[in-house]
């Protein structure tokens, strides 16, 4: 099948590549000429496990092409995927300018029937706006062409994106007619062989399903963080509580880890956007607002512990392990590391940071500054630091050489925002170990 994808970010690039991998003919379009040039040279601009190999294979096979030529892109595909960003606007609502710009571009260049598939995360009612924009541009052109608009939100997780796309838990398809549902069913058939994972519904429900999923996951995290803060004050250990409640199958173990706040390009903006959508229809979404507020507060918790331990932070050097918002990605959008670093800098401390994949991204965001040292290894970050703070649970941080760590650090102090270690074991080795919602062992 002929497929065009607008946007070659985390979602667009993975979507295009995986469609090519099962034999489709895919053209990916982006306005970022630099990105397209890199992709055409065989470079993958993001870190996503397994993606580079797949891009390479499909590019060489001629099934996956990259271009800035939107006209050629529109001419190519029966399916026109919109996978561009929907960042938060000033009021927290999703900014639809990129989505609607693509809709306009499709309408400008189309000359036959197209299925316009919205893969970006967009508020309920966006498909109507996309349809209206296409109709408006077609009318201006004096063209009378048929098209359908589909909501097909994406559920891939950064860090496991290829696997999630190839073996999805569900494929949500929102349409307003059975013919389009059948086209999407055929398109997704290669990813739907083991059992039927395609769930079809009306467009508005599909749009809301994506926000509901992210809001539920964010709620689980904020709930556990609230409980962790309580445990901190009550002398209980949240890790025991987590295991205790997870054993109830109605609760389950997944996604109930306490930590130093959720980040990334999705949860923060999607929770805000859903709350904003609620207020637009006159509903005060109190729970969603609290999920967001608890998370913002949680991003301050590690800094508060550091400040409480040291008092004045001016001139202190803090080693930071982890910059990405979660392991297995280089994405630092809304990462907890950013709030922590910024708070440390405001307090006059310097940061020596290491992340297995996000060093380039950190340098792109912060450039050169005297109070940030981007280190080439986890060990180097520790050299001469007053303490170690951990914000991303990369597996290489899970079992470090604690004796070596003690030698490198000026003081044996760890602030662990992801509860990676056993407090008793660390106390026995002479560390001051602060975690989230766990009693401090002196
Ligand atoms: P991204 O910022 O990584 O990529 C967006 C890309 O779109 C950029 O390369 C940008 O240059 C390009 N673009 C912008 N305007 C364009 C235009 N007019 N024509 C062609 N390309 C254009 O974004 P992302 O993380 O891939 O997210 C895309 C959408 O998918 C968002 O709505 C997001 O909420 C949603 N989503 C993201 C994830 C995730 O894990 N990142 C998961 C599910 C859904």
UniProtKB/TrEMBL annotation:
Record: residues binding substrate: 155-158, 210, 255-259, 263, 326
Signal peptide (from-to): none
The enzyme's E.C. designation: 1.1.1.22
Pathway named in the protein's UniProt entry: Nucleotide-sugar biosynthesis; UDP-alpha-D-glucuronate biosynthesis; UDP-alpha-D-glucuronate from UDP-alpha-D-glucose: step 1/1
Leading EC class: oxidoreductase
Molecular functions per Gene Ontology: NAD binding; UDP-glucose 6-dehydrogenase activity
Residue positions of the active site: 266 (nucleophile)
Residues binding NAD(+), per UniProt: 30, 35, 86, 121, 158, 269, 333
InterPro entries per record: 6-PGluconate_DH-like_C_sf, NAD(P)-bd_dom_sf, UDP-Glc/GDP-Man, UDP-Glc/GDP-Man_DH_C, UDP-Glc/GDP-Man_DH_C_sf, UDP-Glc/GDP-Man_DH_dimer, UDP-Glc/GDP-Man_DH_N, UDPglc_DH_bac
Keywords annotated in UniProt: NAD, Oxidoreductase
Catalytic reaction equation(s): UDP-alpha-D-glucose + 2 NAD(+) + H2O = UDP-alpha-D-glucuronate + 2 NADH + 3 H(+)
UDP-glucose/GDP-mannose dehydrogenase C-terminal domain residues: 319-423
GO biological process per UniProt: polysaccharide biosynthetic process; UDP-glucuronate biosynthetic process
NCBIfam families documented for this protein: NDP-sugDHase (TIGR03026)
Family of this protein: Belongs to the UDP-glucose/GDP-mannose dehydrogenase family.
Protein name: UDP-glucose 6-dehydrogenase
């Amino acid at each position: 099948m002929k497929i065009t994808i607008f946007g070659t970010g985390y979602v667009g690039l993975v979507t295009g590549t995986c469609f090519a991998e099962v034999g489709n003919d895919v053209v990916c379009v982006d306005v970022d000429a630099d990105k397209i040039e890199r992709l055409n040279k065989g470079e993958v601009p993001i870190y996503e496990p397994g993606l580079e190999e797949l891009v390479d294979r499909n590019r060489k096979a001629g099934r996956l092409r990259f271009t800035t030529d939107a006209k050629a892109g529109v001419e190519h595909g029966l399916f026109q995927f919109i996978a561009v960003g929907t960042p938060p606007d000033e009021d927290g609502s999703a900014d639809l300018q990129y989505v609607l710009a693509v809709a306009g571009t499709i309408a400008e260049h189309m000359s036959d029937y197209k299925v316009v598939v919205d893969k970006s995360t967009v508020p309920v009612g966006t498909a109507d706006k996309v349809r209206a924009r296409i109709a408006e541009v077609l009318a201006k052109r004096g063209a009378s062409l048929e098209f359908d608009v589909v909501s097909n939100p994406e559920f891939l997780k950064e860090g496991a994106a290829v696997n999630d796309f190839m073996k999805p838990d569900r494929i949500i398809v929102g349409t307003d007619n059975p013919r389009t549902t059948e086209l999407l069913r055929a398109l997704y058939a290669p990813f739907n062989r083991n059992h039927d994972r395609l769930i079809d519904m009306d467009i508005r429900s599909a749009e809301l399903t994506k926000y509901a999923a992210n809001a539920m996951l964010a709620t689980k995290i904020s709930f556990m963080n609230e409980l962790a803060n309580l445990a901190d004050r009550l002398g209980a250990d949240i890790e025991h509580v987590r295991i205790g409640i997870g054993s109830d199958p109605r609760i389950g173990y997944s996604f109930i880890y306490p930590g130093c706040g959720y980040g990334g390009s999705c949860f923060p903006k999607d929770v805000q956007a859903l709350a904003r959508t609620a207020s637009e229809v006159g509903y005060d979404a109190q729970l969603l607002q609290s999920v967001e507020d608890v998370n913002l507060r949680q991003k301050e918790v590690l800094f508060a512990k550091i400040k409480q331990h040291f008092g004045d932070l001016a001139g202190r050097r803090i080693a930071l392990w982890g910059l990405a918002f979660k392991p297995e990605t280089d994405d630092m959008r809304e990462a907890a590391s950013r709030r922590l670093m910024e708070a440390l800098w405001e307090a006059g401390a310097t940061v020596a940071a290491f992340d297995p994949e996000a060093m380039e991204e950190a340098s792109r965001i912060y450039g050169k500054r005297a109070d940030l040292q981007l280190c080439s290894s986890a060990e180097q970050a520790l050299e001469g630091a007053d303490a170690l703070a951990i914000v991303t649970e990369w597996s290489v941080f899970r079992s470090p050489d604690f004796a070596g760590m003690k030698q490198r650090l000026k003081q044996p102090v760890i602030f662990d925002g992801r509860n990676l270690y056993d407090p008793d074991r660390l106390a026995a080795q002479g560390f001051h170990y602060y975690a989230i919602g766990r009693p401090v062992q002196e």
